Amino acid sequence: MGGFISINLEENYKKNEKFLQSLNEISMERQIQLQYQMQERQRALQIARNRDIFLWFSAFNITAASGLLTGFRRTKRTYLLAPLLPLMFVNLYYWDLAYGNKLHRIRMEAEHIMSHESDMLELPCGLPSPSSVDQGRLDAEEKKKIHPPLP
């Protein structure tokens, strides 16, 4: 009788193991998809932010350029045109970031770094281990005991 129960338990364990494995695969696929969608949304927010910065900076650039050009026409002093050059470079940078292909170039450079310079991506002291995380947690608790927060 004991042999029958142990065989039945082993069969159930094998069935449950396959079921749990499929659940884990589905869970991991969902987590990967969730992370991908969150990254897409953050990239969209970053692009929108860059476009907004470009519009505000363009308005400032136009205002400053009109004032500097008016001052140049009245006084004929060429040093009044000097600030236009750096302002134009910054404005063009933001235009490229907001509407150009700068993000594509950044992505290509990141892919190059990941494939050819992967040693640059290593974390100092390697990956944290569970023991190092626990040690940090215990150290933080000890610091709280030594220096309790003021009420």
TrEMBL record:
The gene is LOC106122297. The chain crosses the membrane at residues 53-72, 78-98. This is Plasminogen receptor (KT). The keyword Ligase does not apply. Keywords: Membrane, Receptor, Transmembrane, Transmembrane helix. GO terms for cellular component: plasma membrane. Residues 129-151 are annotated as: Disordered. The keyword DNA repair does not apply.
